Amino acid sequence: MSLRSLVAVAALMAAGPALAQETPPELRERPDIAAGAAQFVKPTNAERTEVLVGFLTRLGFTPDIQTFEGGNDRTGPMEGANVVVTVGEGERDIVLTAHYDAVKLRDGTLSQGIVDNVGSVMAMMEAAKTLEMGLEGQPVSHRFVFVFTDQEELGLLGAKAFLESHGKDRIAAVVNADVAAYGRTVMYGENNGEPSRFVLETLRALCAERGFDCMGYPVYPPSDDRAFSAAGLPVVSLGVQDAIGAHQMWLAFNGGEDNGLREGFVPPVFQRIHSAEDRIERLNGQDVARFGLFIADLALKLDERLAETAPPPGAEPAAAADDPADDAADVEDEVAQPG
Ligand SMILES: [Zn+2]
């Protein structure tokens, strides 16, 4: 196994030998994350862009602000801005996405958009920072591209714009995070089609290794992931919630008529998001940090899995010297095997 646990690496780096017995970092209080998330509470999405760029810059990244012509029928034309940072180098990309825009409420004010989706943004920054630190001396075969998308709430417009400008050829896998501010149950959608199967397998293996409570949803609410699966790319959409909320949400989406939920029951998280109740008080910094490290480990595990299954770039098929008919069969096998 070449995969190092970033949770373990972070523990060593943060603690040093003398403190090695202390609480691992993913279990420490993280008031910095709550304080950081609070900075995103702004009247406009354009101001949230500035907050995000400031954050990434302070973390030592050089964020690339990629503007696009967005807006929809309701808003009219409106420029959007995806914010992109990359970690590591490689011929192909593992793309990690979280939207940072918040929804405009009926009274015209902007939601604080903490559960949806500053929690995920903070987790992704934690993942980017951890990968950046942890990759020193560790060979990886992919570049990690963190895309903080704009205008998800207007119809996944930032994700679509990114895909259009970036192209899909370089993209080996995508991990999206949406709705993640509290709780330790990792939710994931299983509804992004056959190309995404190896991403789910990799995720489930990680959940088992780390002892994470992970819950697969045959039906899962759409987010930026759908822009990528529509393009045939392997993608998983993740979130976190408390165990009860996650189970209630599972039942609401997948339980059918006999789901056992009382008449008119709406899972609490859906009462909160897209409302004035999606507030900073909901966020638990420790849970968000834990999710961030989980995402970093998933990115590394995907890198490893893809490196195992894909031939090195430019490599000749093993059977090239034999029967040409074998070559065709080999190619088909490779195509059929995600990676
Ligand atoms: Zn969202």
Oligomer classification: single chain
CATH topology category name: Aminopeptidase
What's the N-to-C terminus distance?
18 Å
| CATH homologous group name | Zn peptidases
Strand fraction: 15-25%
Bound molecules: zinc ion
Low-pLDDT residue intervals, each spanning 5 or more residues: 11-20, 317-339
Order of helices and strands: HHHEEEHEHEEHEHEHHHH
> What is the count of distinct domains?
1
Account of the 3D structure:
Keywords: Signal. Residues 1-20 form the signal peptide. It holds the Pfam family Peptidase_M28. The structure is a single chain. By secondary structure, the chain is an alpha/beta fold. It has a single domain (25-336), classed as Zn peptidases (Aminopeptidase). It has helices at residues 6-15, 31-38, 45-58, 114-134, 157-166, 197-210, 225-230, 243-254, 268-272, 285-309, 324-336, and strands at residues 64-70, 78-87, 92-99, 142-149, 171-177, 185-189, 213-217, 235-241. It has an eight-stranded mixed β-sheet, with helices on both faces. Residues 11-20 and 317-339 have low confidence and may be disordered. The structure holds zinc ion. Zinc ion (ZN) is lined by residues 99, 116-117, 152, 178, 223.
Quick take:
The chain is α/β, with parallel strands linked by helices and 339 residues long. Helix content is 41%, strand content 17%.
